[in-house]
Design goal:
This protein is mostly helical.
């Protein structure tokens, strides 16, 4: 059976996402953190002080899952929860001194994975690829042509736009 090009694109994206997740987990295995925890740490490096519920929504993790993942990061000494003074129900997340010290190492490991993934892409091709990903994701954030709302909660953002 021959797949249509758009089906090949979808399958390629799924496979690439899986391989990228596996590469990140492999690169950070000695730190004892998982892919969901790597995603949380990456978000906190960009948006420290974000509410636990907000990071859960951004990463599309249900409240119980995000809570367990953050519990583990707290246990490892990477993250601390602080209760908001104005609303004691609101818990904001902050990086610890330990995670700040490890930031450079985490970024080097992350960059190594990305360099491998983007091998053979010059700067122009990388910029073009990023634009295609943005358009692809933005299209999924728009209401469907039949008027149905988007299933995505957040638009694609490059880290420098966060």
């Amino acid at each position: 059976m021959t797949l249509l090009v758009n089906q090949q694109i979808a399958l390629g994206l799924f496979d690439a996402a899986r391989l990228l997740r596996e590469a990140f987990e492999h690169a950070h295995r000695d730190m004892k953190i998982t892919w969901p925890q790597i995603r949380i740490m990456g978000r906190l490096y960009v948006q420290e002080g974000i509410a636990q519920s907000e990071i859960g929504a951004q990463l599309e993790m249900d409240p119980m899952t995000i809570s367990r993942q953050i519990d583990r990061l707290v246990d490892l000494g990477f993250v601390e929860r602080r209760t908001e003074q104005r609303d004691r129900r609101l818990r904001k997340l902050y990086l610890t001194r330990h995670s700040r010290i490890l930031r450079e190492d985490i970024e080097k490991r992350t960059q190594s994975v990305l360099n491998t993934a983007l091998h053979g892409f010059d700067a122009e091709r990388q910029a073009s690829f990023l634009e295609m990903l943005k358009t692809f994701a933005d299209n999924l954030c728009e209401p469907g042509s039949d008027g149905t709302p988007s299933r995505s909660r957040t638009k694609f953002r490059a880290a420098n736009e966060a």
